[in-house]
Write a structure and sequence with these properties.
Elements (H helix, E strand, L loop, with lengths): L21 H11 L2 H8 L3 H15 L4 E4 L2 E4 L1 H21 L12 E7 L1 H18 L3 E7 L14 E4 L9 E9 L1 E6 L11 H6 L1 E5 L8 H8 L5 E6 L2 H9 L4 E5 H10 L2 E4 L8 E8 L6 H14 L6
Parallel strand pairs: 3-4, 3-5, 8-9, 8-10
Antiparallel strand pairs: 1-2, 5-12, 6-12, 7-10, 7-11
Helix pairs in contact: 1-2, 1-3, 1-4, 2-3, 5-9, 5-10
């Protein structure tokens, strides 16, 4: 009779880790799409980066960058790897730099915040006041909102504030600040400024709308059309601030977020009127790259924005 053999005990040995020093080089190569660009970013010679690319090809089992015309292009596998590599690098950086307390009184930091002029008008000044009290060494650099990619948060934007696109990249975190509604502002001495407006009187007045692309039609026109009404758009403005100034010199209504109207009416002779239509609310949020998720100074910035935005309405 053959003696049975017991199964060998499980091994405690783990598979050897690859050289983790390759991760930053892989991230730089995938983002730059060139050996020279990655070498410049990591401050190494092109020949050293070329040797690193050779090692990465052997480890990954894919050429990653292949000739295309006079330059190089990413392979399909390299394109697919980019999000995972960026997230892995961000997680590694966060693991090696755990959250620390920050002394706000002695903090020296510059934050680059991309937002629209409505957020800048309503939250920018209160944020400056708060920073002056709590973190006088902080400097705010507000960047104009446009058609920029949320991926800019990986490089030169610290915080994106406003109506954010969906979906956001996997390595970008976000939090809702508040949900706002639109109102109309008009010069305080206009004959209709005492209100309230009806759908008919609202449609009969000339309107000023805010759009970066010069579009004159919006959901307001759809709601009026449902009631058999039509409005006249006297002008479009590129910013909410400009729309408020236009309203000061005309008999027109400027349609702006309620927080913008509240701030403008504090310094300008403007009346704030409710729009007599059922319009959708707009969500304002803040977004940041995962690399800043645990940064204590950045957490202070996000918390400050959230506290200030709460004064205009719930998240």
């Amino acid at each position: 009779m053959q003696q049975s053999r017991s199964a060998p005990p499980p091994s405690d040995e783990r598979a050897p880790l690859p050289d983790m020093n390759l991760l930053p080089a892989l991230d730089a190569l995938l983002r730059a799409g060139s050996v020279a660009g990655a070498a410049a970013e990591l401050r190494v010679s092109p020949s050293a980066m070329s040797r690193t690319l050779g090692r990465l090809r052997r480890v990954v089992g894919d050429p990653l960058l292949v000739p295309s015309g006079r330059g190089l292009t990413l392979t399909p596998a390299a394109h697919a790897m980019r999000p995972g590599v960026q997230a892995a690098l961000a997680a590694a950086v966060a693991a090696l730099h755990p959250p620390r307390d920050v002394e706000l009184a002695t903090l020296e930091r510059e934050f680059r915040i991309r937002t629209n002029d409505g957020i800048a008008m309503s939250l920018g000044a209160p944020l400056l006041e708060l920073a002056a009290r709590e973190a006088p060494g902080v400097r705010l650099r507000l960047l104009p909102e446009g058609d920029e990619d949320p991926a800019d948060l990986r490089t030169h934007v610290d915080l994106d504030v406003g109506e954010l696109p969906e979906p956001l990249p996997h390595d970008v975190r976000s939090a809702i600040l508040h949900v706002h509604r639109y109102v109309a502002v008009a010069r305080a001495d206009a004959p209709f400024a005492r209100g309230p407006l009806t759908p008919e009187s609202f449609a009969s007045l000339p309107h000023i709308t805010v759009t970066r692309r010069g579009r004159t039609r919006s959901v307001v026109d759809d709601r009026l059309a449902e009631l058999g009404l039509k409005r006249d758009v006297l002008a479009t403005a590129p910013t909410y601030g400009a729309a408020c100034f236009f309203a000061l010199r005309t008999d027109a209504l400027a349609l702006v977020p309620v927080e913008v109207a509240t701030e403008a009416a504090r310094t300008m002779p403007l009346a704030v009127l409710e729009i007599p239509l059922d319009l959708p609310r707009v969500t304002a949020a803040q977004a940041w790259h995962v690399r800043l998720d645990s940064d204590p100074a950045h957490r202070w910035l996000r918390r400050s924005f959230a506290q200030l935005a709460a004064e205009f309405g719930p998240a």
